Amino acid sequence: MHQFTRPLDMRYDVKQQSFKISEPSHKVPITCMFLCQFDVKRGNVLMWSKNSSSVPNVSLKNIEFKSIPSGIHQVQKDVVSFIIPKHNNFDEVYYGLSCFEQNGLSLSGDTDHVDRSEVQMFSLGVVVDANFRYRGVSKSKFYDWKPNQFISATEYIDDIQDLLSHWLRRFSSFSSQTGSDSIYADYDLFETYFESNCVKSDTPSLSSPVLRRSWQNSSNFTGTSNSLREKSPHMLESLTQWFNYLGPLIFPLWKASLLQERILIIVGNGVSFEKCNSLVYCLSILALTPHSLSDHFKQEPLQPLYTIGITDMDALAQHVSKAMAENRDDYKIPGFVACTADEILEYRTELYDVCLKINGSESLPEIRMSDEATIKATPHELELYEKLVNSHLGYQLSHEEKEKLSRLIEPTTWSQYFIDGFYWWATAGYMKPSYHEPEEELETELDRDNLEIVLSLVGYFHGRISLLYESLKEVVETCDEEIVTVSPVFLSAISFDCFSARDYDFLDCICRKWFNKPLQVKSVDCRIIC
């Protein structure tokens, strides 16, 4: 598999109603900026912060744990995304971004002993309000689309990384000459950057060229040339890496996202928070309602909470309590997708519906339900995955890769086993039942860009959502009974596993959600082999 590293800006174009390479008209002005440190004596501490005087103060309670989460000390640098609820719930939130850097790993070298007094761990971050609008000024259409709000803080990654690295170099140079750490009190660099990019009451317009010309990036203050820096990739560009890592488990995760369940991702040792935050965003995007269906029903995107931890457990519990307080038998807890390295959250099963454990690149991922039932992909989803790898990524899985992925698959049902066996016997292995994915020739495009692959994968999942909706709509409208009944052939026609009890349950849940009608799948009969 080719590795694609060329950085690209990927944004959603509202007018074209599709993804394309484009730039937002502006960055969302900074509402708050802060610096946190891990101190060997005091733990995580907030060292400095600055709020804009033009907006209400943002609560930075526990920000030191959001920006320096558990487990991050195992990497030298990382980027952490997070949210801050505005009103103690997830209905309205601020989006935050922090860049972490430490010298502990470089100090250790080949020895197990490190002078803890020399360890420096810092995280510099910003908080933005993507819904902020200047009074009397037309709002930006770019941020009308909620998934663009989800990544509004990531526009600052490159600047924040540059500012923090420059500040740390100044500290190292100063302390080596004087033996003092008094430079910690020198936050002029951050103050100046914040004042140049924060929300101001006299800023003429968010989309104004005046604002764009006056925007001050970090190179104005650090002397770093922008041409020497490679722009951070868009979160969605990691989709191909996650597609390779998750294998066919991408399908049960997509279905859980489509049902808007509460998805918790457990980040294993040494796993990048930046990559896991990207997966959080990717799952939200894959489950978006396609614009072709926007006239039929409205569904808010699955809310990404990004990185959460122990300090967020009360907010998650309130999230559950608020839904249960409606005193309705059919109450629904609003869904979200989040990641954490605090494994204790895995045992708080009332706080999530689905748990994905990421144990590192050499280990297989695991998915469990809150009732501790293991979720695996269906045999048909393995066929779909092989087909997508072939047609979209342009290569074929090796025998070793197939053996590894087989551990992520449910056992074949007896019904499928007997029907497959009958076809093998009757046709001497020449034909397969129609529920199997047809084999296609390998489509190899050596020059295919990562962006093109990502867009094609997003298009595939959105196409399946459209097909699922239109197919269910047709059977619901033609059914006069209280319960919609379909045959296993129906599942096969819309690329689901006609033998899987989990797919039966999924179709029932999604039919109730979209059409308020229960759905039942008939037992497998001989018509499936026709």
Automatic annotation (TrEMBL):
| Pfam families (UniProt xref) | DENND11
UniProt-listed InterPro entries: LCHN/Anr2, Lipid_Metab_Assoc_Protein
Task: List, alphabetically, the GO terms of the cellular component aspect.
Answer: lipid droplet
- Superkingdom to which the source organism belongs: Eukaryota
Name assigned to this protein: LANO_0D04192g1_1
Native organism is: Lachancea nothofagi CBS 11611
